[in-house]
Amino acid sequence: MRPVTFIVIASVCTACQRPVDVGGLYVNDHGPGNFLPCDRPKAIVLVNDSTLLARYHLTATQPHQPVFVRLRGVPVDSGSIYYSQHYFLVQRVLEVRPRKEGECANAAPVLPLSLQRTKLTAPAF
To answer: Right CATH number for 3-110 from 2.40.50.540, 1.10.10.10, 3.40.50.720, 3.40.50.2000?
Structure first.
């Protein structure tokens, strides 16, 4: 999908939906980051937000280190019935901090070791 098309679709969807608050783990190398919601352990959501990325780099002490974040925004899906990508359009970064022991434990196994060692890519569902 072309970026301009995604922006137009995302803008329309954002206007129709109320923002939600979500919490989970966030990891980024560069480009869109991967967000693993605590309440949906098998989901990987793409987040492309410069404020979140900047705060992530201030908080993470190692490459590809998951940090705990709380975000306010709108979830958006794109694709078809056979394959879709999940995005979260951030309206406000509520919290970015190191992950506490046992926090968001269900999301941790979802983060493959390959994502911890290599460049992050789009999610595979």
So the answer is: 2.40.50.540
